[in-house]
Amino acid sequence: MPTGIKVREVMIKEVVTSTPDQSAQQGAQLMSEKDVGLLIICENSKPVGIVTREDIITKIVQHNKDLSSLTLRDIMNIPVVSCSPDDDLATIAQLMLKYGFKRMPVVDQGNLIGLISYREIIKVTPEEVSTLREQLLKDEPVFYPKKRGPGNCEVCENYADDLSNKNGKWVCTNCIETTAEID
Description:
alpha+beta, CBS-domain, three-stranded mixed beta sheet, three-stranded antiparallel beta sheet, about 20% strand
């Protein structure tokens, strides 16, 4: 059941972007200056990749690579999964949940026009969130892979190289073994 709320109504319109040929160091500095967790990599206003803080850590820092010698093209995630400004929030929320996305570029006629994140989705009124929740629960079960790469544990919030899915939460090995509240 659609919420009746379009992505365009809640999306972020000012998105921090970069070009594929900027160095990873310049990208990291831009993320730090703008206090954002990701860059949309664009060529001629069209998104061609995404780089997150986690990418910089897992693809560069952990491997002792030189930030200044790599470009954002070398580490960007492709292809870009995006949504339309006219998509309903329920559809996008389900897609983000299914694939574990925290944010998604909003594209109109191939051009980047905004960004939607789980934060914008939960900012809608409680009644609309409830409607959205009901819709998500009615549809097919959400696919949760058993293993995921590095990230922050949803229980202790510490960074871990390997997270596992336990009852719909991404948790570190320590929390799986010691925390009863996720059973």
